[in-house]
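User: UNC93-like protein 1, Rhododendron griersonianum:
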Amino acid sequence: MERGRREYLLYDFSPPKKSTPFIPSPSPSLSLSLSLLLSHHIMDAEMDELTGEEQPMMPKLSSSSSSLLRYNSPLAQVLLIGLVCFCGPGMFNALSGMGGGGQVDPTAANKANTALYTTLAVFGVLGGGIYNVLGPRATLFAGCSSYVLYAGSFLYYNRYQNQFFVIVAGALLGAGAGLLWAGQGAMLTSFPPPDLKGTYISLFWSIFNMGGVIGGLIPFILNYNRGEAAASVSDGTYLGFMVFMSIGTVLTLAILHPSKVVRDDGSSCTNIKYSSVSIEIVEILKLFLNWKMLLMVPAAWASNFFYTYQFNNVNGVLFNLRTRGLNNVFYWGAQMFGSVMIGYLMDFSFKSRRMRGLVGIGVVALFGTGIWVGGLVNQLGYSRNQMPTRLDFKESGSAFAGPFILYFSYGLLDAMFQSMIYWVIGALADDSETLSRYTGFYKGVQSAGGAVAWQVDVHKVPFLNQLIANWVMTTVSYPLLVVLVLLAVKDYLKVEGEGNSKGADFSPAIPAFKDDTDGGRRKCI
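Assistant: Predicted structure for UNC93-like protein 1:
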């Protein structure tokens, strides 16, 4: 059989027969990510046919396993972790984005978020090691279940106004989120093929932020007719969040171990070497002396620091309750478009991977500077001592447009900034063990910055000072990321693992043969 023909059968591009397509299209940005992914595979198959390049023998796949969404494929697993984060962190983002957790007084939410980000800073760093020891299912299940408790604590607070439960739930969520994001980061950076990491990241980011979009609709719809007198969101709002978060917790049980995930060329995604607690402690401690991670610190610190300012002091101050929910729909929707834009740039703009990284950083820096300039112009119009009249999307007319566009742009920048960082991390190694530690370190530093940011707001630091601090921190991170890309990102596919996997080679086309080791995968050493 001809090579090109074999690839078309492998990915099953035939049109559906009077049935709903398996892949939903909830947004243009999500559809674009999938289209780019499919186009890349078609081009690869045609190029192989034109060049007549000799390919290694591949196992013959059955029709059920030859679809693009084969259960043990990297794409299917990235889609699954995207759905988990849609239900968990996505809904949490919608809850946080309302300002003060949907309460009129943000004090309880600020204290809970301080506890959350403090424990997340610790468990973010430890999460990579825990993931390597326990595996994905136990780690992700424990992490996602903590989101349900957090949403429930606000339901309790809505009735009894007791801050203690909210703060404890925030601390427990920090531990759980550290585990969840370490596992997610390991999967997202190690599963995709090296030349498609940006596309997979944008696909995940689109699904994940669809959770924020749907989550933003919940308070918008349930509180639409409650009027200006409404002090906080309804009980039904928190119950809606809890239902979605519970579904995400159950979905974690469908995630496969990395050693069972097989790429389209028949090779395993990672040459897993089983770890232990002692090994992980040593490897995690080494991260604090790793020059690559040290260059990443300013970007990681800045990447969640701006949430406090944007959620509490832009959305929470400028808009009324129902408009805040609507704004969140567009804030998280903007993230979907931003991730697709930067994902395409990081994968397809230049042949050189190093050049793609440099151009991506430059584009994000340019966009970021323009958006922060707009934020400065907006912030000069109000302060803590001169609070503005709250805007409503129906009644405020043209006065609503400017702040709304700014808040939308903040969402766009957040996705571009964080997707860029994930791409850089994914370019530093190619094995799940190393990347779980790298992403855990990133989330730990990110969360430490977030904890400080929430305390900054608790202590009533002027809005203008917070904006300037965010602008400076993001700007400082760009040249350091440029240095990291120049020194550490290579233009070939062989990437050295570090720590416990040091010296492992990750060939893009290792022959695989069908056996009895679960799905035809190679035995792992």
